[in-house]
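Exercise 7b. C-alpha cells:
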C-alpha cells in the first residue's frame, strides 16, 4: 500500500480533510500515509473574492490553522442596485485575503502536520478494486499508487467526480461562471465588500463584486448563473463587468479570466466505495459562489467519515452524501440553492431583489450568517416572516427599484 489516504487537490477542501485526518490519526501522519496531489504549483491563481466568513474562521480554528497572510478586515457590506445602495454592518469582520497566498500558506501548515503534499502532479484517474479493498490511482506523471481511500478535492472540473458518476444521470445544475481579476485600486476604497446587482437588468444572473485586498489593490469579478433564457457568452459578461466597474470609478487594465463551477445539488451522489468528494468537486454555493468556507467545512465532514470508515472497516461511504446533506454546510448550501433560484430566476428576480434591497431584517439575518453567528437554514420562521412582510410591501418596493434603474 503506497498510502492510506490519497487526496486529489490541495486547495482549502483537500487541506482541511488532510489536516483533520492528520489530527485524528497521528499514526498515519507520522508514517507519511496521508498524501495530497495537486496539478499546480503553489502559489496558483484561483477565481475567488477571497473573503473568510465566520464559518471559514470557525473551520480554521477547529483545524488549528492560522491566517498568516495579509488580510483586509471588512466590517460592512454594501448592496447596490442602480442608484439605490444599502450598507449592512458586520458584527465580526470578514477578512479578505489573496487566494494565491492563502492557499499556499495552508499547504505549508499542512506539511508541518505531517501531510505530504506533492505539487505539479495531479490525479488523472482511479480504479476501485473492491475485492482487495483498495483504490488504484494514476497520476499525471504516470505513477500508479494504491490507497484505501481517495478524496476528490480537485476542483470544479473534478476528474474524481466525473469518474465516480460515469454512466449516471447528470443531476448537477447549469454551471456558474466566475470572472476575477486583481488590480491596483485607482483610489482609496473603504474597507467594505461591494456587491453590485445592477447588471441583473442587463441579463446577468448574479452580481459584480469589488473587495479590497492588501497593498492598495482590488479584487473584482462577476458571477453569472447560466440559464437557457439568459445564455450570456463570456464576451457579454466581460462587457457587463467593465461597464459596472466604470460606475465605481474602476477601469480594467486587462481581461478578467473566467472559470466554470457547479453549484451543490443535494440529490447528487458524492461518494462511492473507497471514494468521496469535497469542496468545489462536491458543489459550491449557488447564491454567492463562495468556496472557501464550503471547502473547509466539507473537509471536516469528510475526515470524520473517513476515520469512521477506517475504524469500522466499512469503506462503502454509503452514508456520506447524507452526512453532507445533514451537516450545517449541506443545509446552508441547500437553502442557498433555493434562494438562488428565486433571486436569479428569469421571472421573479426583481421581486426577490427588492426584498434584499429594502428589508432591513433580511439583510441583518444574512449578515449574521456571513459572520458565523447564525445558521440561516435554521431560521425558517424569520425567513417566512420576511417574505410575509415583503408580500405586503412589494408593490412600493418594486416601484422604488424601478426608479433606481
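Sequence design result:
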Amino acid at each position: 500500500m503506497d498510502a492510506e489516504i490519497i487526496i486529489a487537490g490541495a486547495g482549502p477542501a483537500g487541506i482541511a480533510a488532510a489536516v483533520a485526518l492528520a489530527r485524528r490519526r497521528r499514526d498515519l501522519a507520522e508514517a507519511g500515509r496521508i498524501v495530497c496531489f495537486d496539478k499546480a504549483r503553489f502559489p496558483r491563481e484561483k477565481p475567488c473574492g477571497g473573503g473568510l466568513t465566520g464559518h471559514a474562521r470557525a473551520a480554521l480554528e477547529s483545524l488549528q490553522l492560522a491566517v498568516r497572510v495579509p488580510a483586509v478586515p471588512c466590517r460592512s457590506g454594501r448592496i447596490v442596485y442602480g442608484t439605490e445602495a444599502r450598507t449592512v454592518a458586520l458584527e465580526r469582520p470578514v477578512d479578505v485575503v489573496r487566494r494565491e497566498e492563502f492557499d499556499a500558506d495552508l499547504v505549508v501548515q499542512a506539511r508541518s502536520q505531517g501531510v505530504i503534499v506533492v505539487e505539479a502532479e495531479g490525479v488523472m484517474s482511479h480504479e476501485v478494486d473492491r475485492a482487495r479493498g483498495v483504490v488504484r490511482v494514476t497520476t499525471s506523471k504516470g505513477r500508479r499508487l494504491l490507497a484505501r481511500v481517495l478524496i476528490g478535492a480537485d476542483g470544479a472540473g473534478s476528474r474524481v467526480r466525473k469518474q465516480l458518476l460515469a454512466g449516471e444521470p447528470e443531476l448537477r445544475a447549469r454551471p456558474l461562471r466566475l470572472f476575477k481579476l486583481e488590480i491596483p485600486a485607482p483610489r482609496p476604497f473603504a474597507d467594505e465588500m461591494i456587491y453590485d446587482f445592477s447588471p441583473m437588468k442587463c441579463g446577468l444572473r448574479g452580481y459584480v463584486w469589488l473587495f479590497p485586498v492588501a497593498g492598495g489593490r482590488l479584487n473584482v469579478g462577476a458571477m453569472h448563473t447560466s440559464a437557457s433564457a439568459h445564455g450570456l457568452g463570456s464576451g457579454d459578461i466581460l462587457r457587463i463587468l467593465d461597464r459596472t466597474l466604470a460606475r465605481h470609478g474602476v477601469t480594467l487594465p486587462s481581461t478578467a479570466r473566467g472559470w466554470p463551477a457547479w453549484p451543490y445539488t443535494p440529490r447528487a451522489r458524492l461518494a462511492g466505495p473507497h471514494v468521496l468528494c469535497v469542496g468545489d468537486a462536491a458543489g459550491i454555493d449557488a447564491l454567492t459562489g463562495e468556496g472557501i468556507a464550503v471547502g473547509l467545512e466539507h473537509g471536516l465532514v469528510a475526515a470524520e467519515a473517513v476515520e469512521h470508515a477506517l475504524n469500522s472497516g466499512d469503506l462503502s461511504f454509503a452514508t456520506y452524501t447524507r452526512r453532507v446533506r445533514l451537516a450545517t454546510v449541506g443545509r446552508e448550501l441547500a437553502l442557498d440553492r433555493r434562494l438562488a433560484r428565486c433571486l436569479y430566476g428569469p421571472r421573479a428576480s426583481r421581486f426577490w431583489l427588492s426584498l434584499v434591497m429594502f428589508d432591513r431584517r433580511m439583510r441583518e439575518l444574512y449578515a449574521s450568517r456571513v459572520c458565523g453567528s447564525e445558521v440561516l437554514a435554521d431560521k425558517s420562521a424569520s425567513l417566512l416572516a420576511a417574505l410575509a412582510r415583503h408580500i405586503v410591501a412589494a408593490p412600493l418596493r418594486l416601484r422604488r427599484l424601478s426608479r433606481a434603474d
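Instructor comment: The longest strand covers residues 84-97. Residues 380-403 form the longest helix (24 residues).
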